[in-house]
Amino acid sequence: MKKYGMVIDVAKCTGCNNCFLACKDENAGEAHEGYTAPQPIRFQNWIHVNEIERGTFPKVKLSCVPVTCGQCDNPRCMTQAKDGAVYKRKDGVVIIDPEKAKGQKDIVNTCPYRVIYWNEELQLPQKCDMCAHLLDKGYEKPRCVEMCPTGALTFGDLNDPESEISKLVAEAKPESRHPEYDLHERVLYLNIPKTFVSGTVVTKQDDMCAVGATATLKRDGKVEQTYTTNAFGDFWFDGLDSKTDYEITIQMDGYKSVELKTRTLASVNLGDIFLEKE
Q1: Which pLDDT does position 12 carry in this prediction?
Q2: 208 in helix, strand or coil?
Q3: Within a 10 A sphere around the Cβ of 155, how many other Cβ atoms?
């Protein structure tokens, strides 16, 4: 039995919204009997791209994060639904029955990711079902995955160790966006945007960018990352835990080392860091 899943690599997403457009093209105004009622043209995004901005000027990063139903192994929507209106197929896809779910608006509020939508006209909760109607016809992937130009979305059979997604899961260890929800999603993520620490290293005597300086990031005395400053003297430590204390050491041949401390309540720009000659 196949076990479908998806891995979304945020680092590869450019925010083109092809996934959203492909979903609309496949589902908007189209009923798939036994699977879904027609998706409205407006007000429902079964997959959408969130833009997440981190940092402060001039050290800012923008990440595009596609968000869709997680096809959870522990779906709250299914526990809330009455009369089997939401069910999980053997292949892992979670379906909202377009007949049994009518009038059950409470299902919408069960999802902490807010990816279940209420169709006011049909009085029906709706969401992504991984294009189950296509998968059952022999298609290898949902439309959103098919139309992604950068390969940010990887879909396949998690029970097949030779599948692309199984290899990706084994090698890259994707994660849930919110493991604290305890949903055990089958849609997982790589390179989830987290806090970063950045700065610019400058030589004090000549006020020039310190190219090639070594920046070392430590937590509790243990090295976590190192970075060689670029042509602008900049360094970036990304993917850091929030609300965590870090120590940063800046070193460059012929200059005195500098040690700094910071706490990641949010992404941090340490500003200009001046090196003095020994």
Answers
A1: 98
A2: strand
A3: 23
Average pLDDT of 237-258?
A: 97
On the 0-12 / 13-18 / 19+ scale of CB atoms within 10 A, 7 is buried
Among left, alpha and beta (phi > 0; psi -120 to 50; other), residue 182 is left
Residue 69: burial class (beta carbons within 10 Å; 0-12, 13-18, 19+): buried
For the four alpha carbons of 79, 81, 84 and 85, in that order, the dihedral sign comes to negative
CA distance 120 to 128: 17
- For residue 49, what are the β-bridge partners? 66
pLDDT band at 21 (very low <50, low <70, confident <90, very high): very high
For range 110-129, the mean pLDDT: 97
CA 37 – CA 126 distance, rounded (Å)? 8
In angstroms, the CA 23 to CA 66 distance is: 12
Residue-wise pLDDT for 56-81, tens only, equals: 999 999 999 999 999 999 999 999 89
